[in-house]
Amino acid sequence: MGFDLAGLKAAVAAQGRVARVVIAEVSGSAPREVGCAMLVWEEAGRLRQSGTIGGGALELMAVEQALSAPGLTRHPLGPGLGQCCGGAVVLWTEVFDAAGVAALEGQEIVARGSGERPLAVQRLIDRARGQGRLPEPQLVQGWMVEPLARPARQLWIWGAGHVGRAMVQVMAPLPDLAITWVDTAPERFPDEVPPGVTVLPAADPARAVPHAPQEAEHLILTYSHEIDLALCHALLRHGFAFAGLIGSDTKWARFRSRLRTLGHADAQISRISCPIGQKTYGRHPQAIAIGVAGQLLGQKKGDGTAWIHSSASGA
């Protein structure tokens, strides 16, 4: 979680004047955690938003007031808002234009508030820098401190067919995730691609594998078994944190045999998960995407969730 400067910059470039609402503090039960943010702007006489601070009456009120009432506000999540969470949240609302965004450039930790910067804020920043880590988003003596957003995970999605498009739609809104989307030609991709997704046309996708970080995660979903096999071969040589291949048990048995012939040991080959997805969800592209996304999030949280070797068969 962090300050998404790139997203804010893009919104201001498109809309001119944009409010950013972030959860600065939480006490008790609340729908989302500190650092969650949304952007609000006016377009054609209507308020629009990107992101969420948890929905419900709190979010509706925050959207309505974002452009006209910036500042620090506290909101009990009780009968007054028609919510029963029982806790309370503090919201920090700022309105940005191009100059305001430009003033944030070059900052690794964004700290802002009224008056002179408190000593506690400066100590927090100095301690984080001295330890080589970024601080968690937090409110300190009336100042909001947030690190710039840095994607914690790199996800490479190979294939822009039905399942690839569904995967991008499901995964793109998630924070802390950078998606690189690869297929064989520009026309393979939809006209509109979600913000933050890097499109990479490559006539020979396997030749793009060396450009992926070795800690990246991969989903192989192309239209061609030969491309799929070439990607598996290239990834086994290059290294990866996770690789999932869409396909049936029969397809994977054939691939294992061919990968052995290409010189890969069984222990290496077994690092590739195939099939992927939740069998009980069905084979609709969105169902496959939801199953795979849930398993990715479970893996991220370290809760022991494994990639389930069942279903999600493909061509």
Give an overview in words.
Residues 12-68 form the XdhC- CoxI domain. Pfam families: XdhC_C (PF13478), XdhC_CoxI (PF02625). This is Molybdenum cofactor sulfurylase. InterPro entries: MoCofactor_Util/Proc, NAD(P)-bd_dom_sf, Xanthine_DH_XdhC, XdhC_CoxI, XdhC_Rossmann_dom. Residues 155-296 form the XdhC Rossmann domain. The protein has 315 residues and is an alpha/beta fold. The protein has two domains: 5-107, no CATH class; 153-298, NAD(P)-binding Rossmann-like Domain (Rossmann fold). It is 30% helix and 25% strand. It is built from nine helices and 14 strands. It has helices at residues 5-15, 56-65, 98-102, 119-130, 162-171, 225-238, 249-261, 266-269, 285-300, and strands at residues 18-27, 37-43, 46-51, 71-76, 88-96, 109-112, 138-140, 143-147, 153-158, 177-183, 197-201, 217-220, 242-245, 272-273. It has a six-stranded parallel beta sheet, sandwiched between helices. The protein has a five-stranded antiparallel beta sheet with strand order 3-2-1-5-4. Helix 5 (162-171) crosses helix 9 (285-300). It is elongated and about 70 Å long. Residues 301-315 have low confidence and may be disordered.
